[in-house]
UniProtKB/TrEMBL annotation:
One of its GO terms (cellular component) is cytosol. Residues 365-413 are annotated as: Disordered. This is C-Maf inducing protein. SMART domains: PH (SM00233). Residues 400-413 have a biased composition (Pro residues). The lineage of its organism: Eukaryota, Metazoa, Chordata, Craniata, Vertebrata. It comes from the Eukaryota. Residues 61-170 form the PH domain.
Length: 413
């Protein structure tokens, strides 16, 4: 694609494209009709369709790139005002990297001798001065104004949205790493989810970064109430419509399924997540916690009224006749989940015999070889020899022993 400054007309087609998230699948509301009177936990949680940003350009998230940099310091004297006039401004070429904490240059000299932290950026906007240089992004900081000049308008907007995303994620990470009031935390989580869903950037990390931030928050605050758990799960549900949950979040979901299997969150929120896992997962060996979460979800369904029928209806809704089912991965994934469940029933017995890693070790990451239990002695792994009948023992005891040769006579040297 040509991103030259004169290529604005060629991008009109992209301006008219509408990017819409995948519609959610039918839930299991009809599968647990008898569970309405016995449900425990929060009230019904309505899942709404969240659409991505409306028509407009889409951009790939920038992690690094070449750009022109100019710093305009705030004039304090008449002489400094003359030095910062547009006739004496100096532009420097830099290869900038957008890290998690700030902007750094591959050649730390001149304007970019020290990294520019996102926390020091007070404002970020497209340059709107009269007679301003073309294709510039303006960063305001206490030391002055930093101008970033791109080669064309598309690259300028790409830098603008990437910097804006990095700055906001940096802020949310700091706020949610030090929570004070949980009502405020919940509002910040909802704002973070809305920001990710409405971003014009296209990158895997756009949805995964908020999920990792929230999973870290949950892992470091294990004393939350069940109501807080459900509120957070409902808040992040739109991000899970088209993304697998990260491992730490899977562990949190497993805990919720075990402790509150009759919660409506299991039906309303976890059902489309498990459906997506069964349809699109390619290898549970690379992500064992997804398998554990699917297993705990099916066990939670079994806790509902008429649980076995609910499980059967869920399986039938996932997989049709073999020749007609459009999702060939569903059946192998269901078999893998069932085999893992059978293995867990005999986990301790199997581990005591062959020293294989347990599900707990797989869940927490396989431990080092020297941290595992030593294998059982070999004599416990083989059956004891059969005791001969008494008559055989009698014959063996009366049989004459063969003559022993006399010991050799000592020889004198």
């Amino acid at each position: 694609m040509d991103f030259t400054s004169g290529g604005g007309g060629t991008n009109e087609l992209h301006n008219n494209q509408i990017y819409q998230c995948e519609e959610s699948k039918p839930l299991l509301g009809e599968m647990s009709e008898g569970n309405n009177n016995t449900k425990v936990g929060a009230g019904p949680c309505k899942r709404t369709l969240h659409h991505c940003s409306s028509s407009g350009m889409r951009y790939k998230l920038l992690h690094e790139g070449d750009i022109q940099v100019c710093v305009v310091k705030h004039p304090r004297t008449f002489f400094s005002k003359i030095l910062t006039s547009k006739f004496l401004r100096r532009w420097e070429p830099h290869h900038l990297t957008l890290t998690d904490s700030g902007l750094t240059s591959a050649t730390p000299t001149g304007y970019m001798e020290t990294p520019l932290s996102y926390s020091s950026i007070e404002d970020l906007q497209l340059l709107s001065w009269d007679n301003a240089p073309k294709y510039c992004v303006q960063l305001s900081s206490p030391v002055g104004t930093i101008l970033l000049q791109a080669a064309n308008s598309y690259l300028r907007d790409q830098w603008f949205h990437s910097l804006q995303w990095k700055k906001k994620i940096y802020k949310y990470r700091k706020v949610l790493n030090n929570p004070s009031r949980w009502d405020v935390v919940l509002k910040e989580i909802r704002a973070l989810v809305d920001m990710a869903l409405s971003s014009p950037l296209q990158d895997e990390s756009i949805h995964q970064a908020p999920l990792h931030i929230i999973s870290t928050l949950l892992a470091e605050n294990s004393n939350l109430s069940a109501q807080d758990h459900e509120n957070i799960i409902v808040a992040i549900a739109p991000l899970l419509e088209n993304n697998h949950p990260p491992p730490d979040l899977c562990e949190f979901f497993c805990k919720h399924c075990r402790e509150r299997p009759r919660s409506m969150v299991v039906i309303e929120v976890f059902t489309p997540v498990v459906q997506r896992i069964l349809k699109h997962n390619m290898d549970f060996g690379k992500c064992p916690r997804l398998r554990l979460f699917t297993q705990e979800y099916i066990l939670a369904l079994n806790e509902l009224n008429g649980g076995m029928e609910v499980v059967k209806k869920f399986v039938h809704s996932m997989h049709g006749p073999t020749g007609q089912c459009p999702h060939p991965r569903v059946l192998p994934n269901l078999v893998a989940v069932c085999l893992a469940a059978i293995y867990s029933c005999y986990e301790e017995f199997i581990n005591s015999r062959d020293n294989s890693p347990s599900l707990k070790e797989i869940r927490n990451g396989c431990q080092q070889q020297n941290d595992r239990k030593p294998p059982m002695p070999l004599r416990l792994l083989r059956p004891e020899p059969l005791t001969p009948p008494p008559t055989t023992l009698l014959l063996l005891s009366t049989a004459p022993s063969p003559p022993q040769p006399p010991p050799p006579a000592p020889t004198n040297p």
